[in-house]
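User: Hi! I'm working on a homework problem where we have to compare a predicted structure to a textbook description. Could you give me the structure for the chain below?
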Amino acid sequence: MTSQLTPTLTRMWSLRKHQPEPGMWVGTSQKTHVFGAIHTRTGQFISMQADWINAGSFVRFLRKIKSCYTRKKVIIILDNARWHKAKKVGRVIDKLGIRFVFLPPYCPMMNPVEKVWKLYRMNVTHNYFHAQLSRMIKATANFFRSLRHSYAQLASYC
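Assistant: Happy to help. Predicted C-alpha cells:
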C-alpha cells in the first residue's frame, strides 16, 4: 500500500458552517509504502515500511514473514501486482518454501488485507495533514503497532 503526504479527503461529521479544512501540501510526491499480511487463523498482522515498492523490498518482506513462521508452511494470498510476479521473487520463494496463491484480477474485496488498508486510511490519512513525511511515517508505525491488540478483529476480516 502506498500513502502520499497529501491528505485524502473524505466525508466527516462537523458543526454546521464549520467544516474542518485539512492542510494541503501541493506539489509533493513524498510517500511511504507498507507491505502487510494477516494470519488467517490468529489475526496476527505483520507489516513492513519501505522506501520503494518493488521486488527487492517485497523479498525483504517475505523474509520477515518467514522468520515469524520458521517451521511452518507459509501460503500467501496475493493480488496481481507486478512485483509479486518478478523473477527475483520467484527464485526467493522457492528457497524460503513459500507458496503463492493469486487472486483473480480486479478483486480487492477478496483480499482481507484491503480492510486493514481501509482502516489505516481512516485513522492516519483521511482528512489529516502531516506537515512532514517523517510525521506520517511515525503515525503509520504507531497505527500498525496498535493492531497488536486487535488480532481478534483482524481475524474476522479473513
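For your comparison, note the following. The first strand starts at residue 2 and ends at 4. The mean pLDDT is 85. Good luck with the assignment!
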